[in-house]
Amino acid sequence: MSKINAKELLKKYAEGNCSPEERALVETYYNKFKAASGNDLPEQELENNLDSIWKGLPVKRRGRQAKLWYGISAAVVLIVFSAGLYFYTLLKHSEDLTGQASVVQVDVPPGKQKAMLTLADGRKISLVDAAKGDIASQAGIRIIKTEDGNLIYRGDELSTSAQLFNTIETPKGGEFQINLPDGTKVWLNAASSLKYPVAFKGKDRKVVLTGEAYFEVAQNKNKPFKVLTSKQEVEVLGTHFNINAYEDTDGIKTTLVEGSVKVKQLDHINVRLLKPGQLAILKGNSLAVKEADIEAEMAWKNGYFIFNGENLESIMHKISRWYDIEVVYSRGLINNEARFGGIVSRNKNISVVLKTMERTGQVHFKLEGKKVTVLP
Questions:
Q1: Which H or E run includes 25?
Q2: 346 shares its domain with 329
């Protein structure tokens, strides 16, 4: 292997362009030096570390395709860049920081675990303020906030024949995890809601989603699990999948991680069966299936933003939801053909994201309170 350039190697890793040998080198480096995460390492030290690891790798390790797991690329990049973010544009990549600087008067912290629970009788409970333990009871079903702040249900049967529904809603700047009455685990992204029964009765288990959520469905061969959004229905028996049904996105996206799901367009004949690693996109009357970028689609759940060739408007929608800010665009903004890519922890303040996006030379920002103005 030729002399290693650390930053170029990590750039290739983040973009998925490394050879098996290079991937093995980066992963071994990460395992050995992960304790340094969050600190800036001098480039020369980084070069020396990578070079020494390469020389010490067994031959079979060098030539073997390393098994990757989500998040390592972002974690490695965080070691190198003090901003905790790596960003580039597909049209232009520049390290030049000259030009108009961003204006940051008051920084905005990232979102956090936050949600509101609406009970069947209309009562509302803030899940941030609620104490740990039992927070409510409905027809014999206990609702419990766990020690780690999640929500679970206890009880097998309702003491009434009536179907009772609860709704959990996350605001902008919030996310939450809930265990449904059947044991299904759901992670809600910001500005999302899920309506579900207090106990699943009848021949199926049906919930209604707005926004985005990741599901790990408890298996029950006799009772299919169905997720309804505004334009589609997803049916499963037991599997892991993500649905992005925000109104401001370009179509509804269903990503299958494991198992199998059936995606059906409402009021239409379109039906698709997904295999693990596939993505269904419902746009208008088109229901297309393609290979999914699992890392990018699942990034929000794992604590990251990953942008792969996205336009500015799409990126700012995600940032707006997570940081609960207003986005305003100036006239003569930016070439619409510009596409951005990058990896960033969702635990960083908004200034980290904005300032590092400016490094591409394609865009500038002015942050005033909870309003971000996008400038050319």
A1: helix 20-33
A2: yes
The set of residues, in sequence order, having a beta carbon less than 8 Å from that of 254 and lying 6+ positions away, is: 232, 234, 241, 242, 243, 244, 261, 263, 274, 279, 280, 282
The Cα–Cα gap between 226 and 263 comes to: 10
Please identify which residue in the block is written with the tokens 């609620």: 130
Beta strand 232-236 with 225-228: parallel, antiparallel or unpaired? antiparallel
What's the pLDDT tens digit per position in 61-118? 333 333 333 333 333 333 333 333 456 665 443 333 333 445 555 789 999 999 999 9
Say if residues 161 and 202 touch (Cβ distance below 8 Å): no
CB 200, CB 181: distance < 8 Å:
yes
- 311-328, pLDDT tens digit by residue? 888 999 999 999 999 999
Domains held by the chain: number = 3
Cα separation, 124 vs 223, whole angstroms: 30
Helix (H, G, I), strand (E, B) or coil at 345: strand
Q: Which two tokens stand for residue 326?
A: 């207003």
Q: Which helix (H) or strand (E) holds 46?
A: helix 43-56
Q: Match 């989603």 to its residue by tokens.
A: 209
* Per-residue tokens: 133: 């333990």
Instruction: Provide the β-strand partners of residue 331.
Output: none
Q: What pLDDT, on the 0 to 100 scale, is given for residue 333?
A: 63
Domain range enclosing 182: 112-297
For residue 288, give the CATH number of its domain: 2.60.120.1440
Beta pairing, strands 116-118 & 165-170? antiparallel
Smallest CA-to-CA distance from 301 within 147, 192, 228 is with: 192
SS3 at position 31: helix
Give the CB-side neighbour count of residue 321, counting CA atoms within 13 A. Answer: 20
State the residue for tokens 């942008």.
Answer: 307
**pTM for the structure as a whole:** 0.75
